[in-house]
Write a structure and sequence with these properties.
Strands 7-6-5-8-9-10 form a six-stranded parallel sheet, sandwiched between helices. A four-stranded parallel sheet has the order 3-2-1-4. The protein is built from 30 helices and ten strands. The radius of gyration is 34 Å and the shape is elongated. Helix 9 packs antiparallel against helix 10 and helix 16 packs antiparallel against helix 17. By secondary structure, the chain is of the alpha/beta class.
Length: 606
């Protein structure tokens, strides 16, 4: 037979060979779907003994049989034989997957990398690399792989979803939304993408959109307890606590022992003032997951709110196990002082560890340390340092900055742990009228001059707090609402630093409000200005603490469920003798609170 005829014969034989292999694969696949792994194995063995077959493909198919049966070690052996016979990218990918099933992640990564090198334009291989890198806890590298996979194939929704998931974990919420949007565009019925996008939207405080996405995820998959719980969290953030409790109930009906969901449900019960039920739920959560520090923390705040100081101060120490509450505390080598050792003749570094208002409230304990013979150094925010300098018992203020040099010290202590250390109860709160250093008369006189002739009562106003505070929605009041006070005969003085855009527009239209806040560089400047006023009216923010700590008459507007320090059912404060509290009622509106404040102001003139 001539060479040409032999070539023609081979060409004619090739379609038949391909047909046989296609039929073989179809038969094996059918057996595997029916769970007939032995039959599938025998079929592959028969094919291997035949002549004229693609041996590498049959070896690979045998690996698939064992992989389907869950025999990953044997699958690895057969896939490895296929790769040795012919290192095709698909064979390498399946070998990597089988190795990963055995927990051999580093080997799996090496094999997958070879597959990517052979077929760098194959998006599925980059996605596989991403999955393996997640298993190797190399999230940043995994993210790059998923991004590249989606760039190669815009229909690969799973890569976009996983990129969004990782970006959310990295707190890159806007970027996460970009990829989750693409995932949903490519697969609009994928409930986890809506679930994850809702989480990102909540983190960006786009709460109405987060609620809509959670509801869409539930519509697609009503059996996911996590999504019901996440909807509860969004409703909670929106202040819709009745509806939040119902969502948590649905989540717990599906997964009754998820401690974090029970804790979140309890938080909404607190906001509904169903306090006994909330306490029971916190205790139930702790019984399931005693290591869940956020539950202990929340229970402690409830205990303090209801006057159970001994339990509450102790429970607040759980903050050391909660990253976002403890990350501001410096890493220090010397022992932390909890009140057990003598500090006579010792240097104690006291570290401000929570918000500015907390620091102003609890700095009152510094003289107690000095009374035990300690040399007290305070590590504090720069804006508060000059205010506290010269305080009784305080040797030095050190700024909380990366470039600050700490003096030598024997112990360190968290400022907010001092109420626990000194056993503070409702009846033993140190409640001096004023405990901050006296403001220089010259500084007060300067503000007196700038404010002009004192022919009316001078009232300082603060209507909003830190917009990043978790409870800002309930604490801050628009200036347009506050303005209803301003027809009272008084000189109103803004103490509001950095007003929000809408409030700034209102303020610009009120020439009757004196605004000198541009000249307030720190809290000592604010203290001097407050010392030239007769009254401060404020929401619950650091300036309210400052005015009260100076002994200035201070009226504080509080939400229906206030911060723990203001307790419940009283219009005075055991912490500050000059404070008067104006609380929201169950309706949770500030209009009625402003009406009561306005009425109280008119009575002052009466």
């Amino acid at each position: 037979m001539s060479p040409g005829n032999r070539g023609q014969k081979r060409n004619k034989a090739q379609p038949a060979k391909n047909l046989r292999e296609a039929n073989l694969r179809e038969s094996v696949s059918a057996y595997l779907k029916e769970g007939r792994h032995l039959d599938a194995q025998r079929l592959c063995e028969q094919a291997l003994s035949a002549s004229g077959v693609d041996k590498a493909e049959i070896l690979h198919l045998m690996g698939e049989v064992f992989f389907s049966a869950g025999h990953f070690g044997q699958a690895v052996e057969w896939f490895s034989q296929a790769v040795r016979s012919e290192p095709r990218p698909r064979y390498l990918a399946n070998l990597a997957t089988a190795l990963a099933k055995q927990g051999r992640i580093e080997q799996a990564l090496q094999v997958a990398d070879k597959a990517v090198q052979l077929a760098p334009g194959d998006a599925s291989l980059w996605s596989l690399m991403g999955n393996l890198l997640i298993d190797a806890t190399r999230s940043s590298d995994a993210l790059l792989c998923f991004k590249h996979a989606f760039e190669l194939d815009g229909h690969l929704w799973e890569a976009a979803y996983k990129a969004g998931h990782l970006l959310h974990g990295l707190e890159q919420f806007d970027d996460a939304l970009t990829f989750l949007d693409r995932s949903i565009q490519a697969k609009p019925d994928h409930a986890p993408s809506f679930h994850m996008r809702a989480l990102a939207l909540k983190s960006l405080k786009r709460l109405d959109e987060a609620r809509a996405d959670n509801m869409r995820a539930i519509e697609l998959d009503p059996t996911n307890a996590d999504t019901h719980g996440n909807l509860g969290n969004v409703l909670q953030a929106l202040g819709q606590h009745d509806q939040a409790v119902l969502s948590f109930d649905r989540a717990l009906a599906m997964a009754p022992h998820i401690a974090r969901t029970i804790t979140n449900r309890a938080a909404s019960l607190v906001e509904l003032r169903r306090l006994d039920q909330a306490r029971t739920e916190y205790e139930r959560s702790l019984a399931i997951a005693p290591e869940l520090a956020v539950t202990e923390w929340n229970l402690a705040l409830l205990q303090l709110l209801t006057g159970e100081f001994e339990k509450g101060w102790r429970g607040r120490e759980a903050r050391w196990e909660i990253p976002h509450l403890s990350r501001g505390y410096p890493q220090l080598g010397s022992p932390r002082w909890l009140g057990d050792e003598s500090i006579a003749g010792k240097t104690v570094l006291v570290c401000a560890d929570e918000g500015l208002g907390d620091t102003i409230q609890f700095v009152r304990y510094i003289p107690f340390l000095a009374a035990q013979g300690a040399r007290v150094v305070l590590l504090v925010e720069e804006s508060l340092a000059s205010l506290f300098s010269g305080m009784d018992g305080l040797v030095q203020c050190v700024l909380k900055r990366d470039d600050s040099v700490l003096p030598a010290f024997d112990f360190h202590c968290a400022l907010d742990s001092l109420p626990l250390i000194f056993g503070t109860t409702l009846n033993t709160i140190p409640s001096a009228r004023s405990y901050l250093p006296a403001v220089s008369p010259d500084r007060i006189a300067d503000w007196e001059t700038r404010l002009g002739r004192r022919d009316r009562r001078r009232i300082g106003l603060v209507w909003s707090g830190n917009p990043r505070h978790w409870n800002d929605r309930n604490r801050s009041v628009p200036l347009s609402v506050f303005s209803r006070l301003m027809d009272v005969d008084a000189q109103f003085v803004s103490l509001q630093k950095d007003p929000r855009p809408l409030d700034k527009q209102v303020l610009d239209q009120r020439p009757d409000v004196v605004d000198l806040t541009g000249d307030l560089a720190d809290f000592s400047d604010t203290a001097a200005l407050i010392s030239a006023l007769d009254l401060v009216i404020a929401v619950d923010t650091s300036v309210a603490h400052l005015a009260a700590a100076l002994g200035c008459p201070t009226w504080i507007l509080l939400p229906y469920v206030p911060d723990y320090r203001w307790l419940l059912g009283r219009d005075d404060s055991p912490w500050y003798p000059t404070v008067r509290l104006f609380r929201q009622t169950e309706g949770r509106d500030y209009d009625s609170v402003i009406d009561r404040v306005r009425e109280a102001l008119t009575l002052l003139d009466g």
